[in-house]
TrEMBL record:
Alphabetized Pfam families for the sequence: Sigma70_r2, Sigma70_r4_2
RNA polymerase sigma factor 70 region 4 type domain boundaries: 131-177
Keywords in alphabetical order: Sigma factor, Transcription, Transcription regulation
Every RNA polymerase sigma-70 region domain range: 28-91
SUPFAM superfamilies with a match to the protein in the record: Sigma2 domain of RNA polymerase sigma factors, Sigma3 and sigma4 domains of RNA polymerase sigma factors
Protein name: Sigma-70 family RNA polymerase sigma factor
Family in the record: Belongs to the sigma-70 factor family. ECF subfamily.
UniProt signal peptide: none
């Protein structure tokens, strides 16, 4: 296990942009954050997605981390907030009432409306244009994860890379893509 001074040095190196420091933080805290999320979601894919979002946000905001707090506590707090945001997501609900026995059922409607489909198609075309601005390896990892919906393990096998590299490369590709999208607006 890594002691507090070593963690602080890794955090300082991450603040300087050293990729190896981000990988060490990811490897050190991945299972803690994943376990926390899995206990909340009881769904492997959702726990994995929220965990990767947690690290993406933490790495983006690493300069805001205060050395007065335990890094694990800080990253779990970020993860908790992302989880809360995910359950607050907007879902259309329909109330179905069974007249025979006066029971009510909430039926969630996740299907996009016709207007949503048009917006999605337009946004998808725009998004694909932005993705093409990334380096080929970044395009590939985005494609594998979000369009082919492969797990991190499947991506690691397909790209012949360690899973920690896949996670860090995906974080970076998402960050660069986000920057490209924001600059285009």
């Amino acid at each position: 296990m890594t002691n507090k001074e070593e963690i602080q040095e890794i955090i300082n190196n991450a603040r300087l942009g050293q990729e190896s420091a981000f990988k060490k933080l990811l490897n050190t805290y991945w299972s803690d954050v994943y376990r926390f999320q899995f206990s909340k979601t009881n769904n492997e894919n959702e726990a994995e997605d929220i965990t990767i979002k947690t690290f993406a946000k933490a790495f983006d905001k690493i300069d805001l981390y205060s050395d007065n707090y335990n890094f694990k506590t800080w990253i779990i707090s970020i993860s908790k907030n992302i989880f809360i945001d995910s359950i607050r997501g907007t879902k259309n609900e329909t109330l179905s009432i069974n007249k025979e026995n006066s029971e009510a059922y909430h039926i969630s409607d996740d299907a996009p409306s016709p207007e949503d489909k048009i917006i999605i198609d337009q946004n998808l075309a725009e998004l694909l244009g932005h993705i093409k601005k990334l380096k080929p390896k970044q395009q590939e990892i985005i494609n594998l994860r979000f369009f082919q919906e492969l797990s991190y393990k499947e991506i690691a096998v397909k790209m012949n890379e360690p899973m920690s590299s896949v996670k860090v490369n995906l974080l970076r590709a998402k960050k660069l893509l986000s920057d490209i999208i924001h600059k285009a607006k």
